[in-house]
Predict the 3D structure of the following.
Amino acid sequence: MDAVESLQNAFVLVQDGIIVNYGEMNKCPNIDIEIIDLKDKWVLPAFVDSHTHLVFAAPRHNEYVMRIKGKTYAEIAAEGGGILNSAKKLHTLSEDQLFDMALKYANQAILNGTAALEIKSGYGLTTESEIKMLRVIKRLKSVLPITVKSTFLGAHAFPIEFKNNHQAYIDIIINEMLPIIAKEDLADFIDVFCDEGFYSVEETKQILDAAIQIGLKPKIHGNELGLTGGVQVAVEFNALSVDHLEHIGDEEIDCLKRSKTMPVALPGSSFFLKIPYTPARKIIDSGLPIALASDFNPGSSPNCNLWFIWSLACLYNGMTPTEALNALTINAANAMGISDTHGSVTIGKKANLMVTKAFEHINEMPYWFTQNHTERIFTSK
Ligand SMILES: [Zn+2]
């Protein structure tokens, strides 16, 4: 993970959105093409953001202030804030209103160098609102110039009215939501928040069993709040990724080593909630890969700038700048199931490239933190 090969004074040749050649400038074919001079700049594979909640109804700045004044995220959630607060607001907005907001955020992400986005539902928590969110994501897929993957996260929380009857809500997910998703082709992936106070391992398995039947691949929110079996259930169901992992022990690491499931760290939410960071150093040193994502959402990570995630990963997850770059590109593409086409400058892959400002060394990119170093982005979906 710590290797990033680079060429100086080089060219990349793109045709019809595909990388068809690259190499040192003296080997650049002498053909009639449009030439873009990028002297002193770097050309990197564009970022891949494999974990976002980009469709939401409103920011949650009031909860931000409550936390500054001493309340915890769990206390706010228990008082009807958190995910349930987002769900309440989302019911009142139309599909068009949600789409307009989400489009604005997606364009912000692209300007920050992101050329593939995974977007989750999960702020609806009723059939009508979950489907509304997924239709918004489907529209984003068709209008954005980048690859978008849609994840159904109806199992993000339990609505208050089902607090004491989990099975009734799970039945709605399985018997009402999933059939509409299958019929309208609304999702690529299924996600469940498998953690303390959310979905148990048994509840998670029930939902995954049903979702796999309609062709959805699992991605799991797990081990954010404790060692609660999220990793094990993700591996058992051959999930593409298991995300969060602020809590991870030797048993979880051994389990991941016997799988193709990509561990994903989300340092933006650790930063914003002031909770522990995923021990990426320990995960990498055990021989595993890791990916990084923004977790962009209004409650715990209102940031879609992956340059900042890069800096956080180096400072607080213990990753080197090159490990973190791989985690934000090729490994993130793997966590989204698109590593055949995205995540690296490789002949035959789609030309998702970004041009950075001038730097002497790649280590400078996360060093100058909180800035957007993307000068230009080329996308192809
Ligand atoms: Zn998330």
